[in-house]
What we know:
The structure is a single chain. The protein starts with a strand and ends with a strand. The protein is an alpha+beta fold and 160 residues long. It has helices at 23-27, 34-45, 76-80, 88-93, 117-127; strands at residues 2-3, 30-32, 67-74, 102-108, 111-116, 135-138, 143-147, 152-157. It is built from 5 helices and 8 strands. Strands 1-2-5-4-6-7-8-3 form an 8-stranded antiparallel β-sheet, with helices on both faces. The chain is globular. 24% of the residues lie in helices and 26% in strands. The chain has one domain (10-157).
Amino acid sequence: MYQSLEQFSKNWIFKRNDPKIESEDLQEIRLLSELRASQIWRDYISDEQIHPDHFSDRDWLKKASTQAPDGKLQWEKVWDSDQESLPDGLLSHFSAWGDDTTVFFCCHNELVFELSWGIFKRTWKAFLFLDNGPILVGKKKKQAAQFHSNGWVNLLFRES
Length: 160
């Protein structure tokens, strides 16, 4: 179900001093096996496309009906700053999530991380070194977000 973070080719993002990830948090960041990752991707993201670059208008992430009312915000300025917390708009969008909510940070169909919302909030800057379209979803939750390398994030609501 899981594989070692050492297997991840870009595991350096979790070992940097800036941003620093505490060892207790690092132990709770799980890299899913490719089989489990593809299941999560199929269930939560897309059963047709394997990478965010390939999403089409048929994928829920591209539909106007899934966009949050204030559906786009800038993440990169906060990421570049000394502010440690997520941008306020993201915190508001996910305000219904408890710190123990299981979240999946989905890069593509074979690269998915599992961790708690509380840990993601503390370690988000490390994850956004992977900014080529990853999607953050919560287990059994409607809220979602897709991060883009241009510094913007789309706030979304998943279809059931």
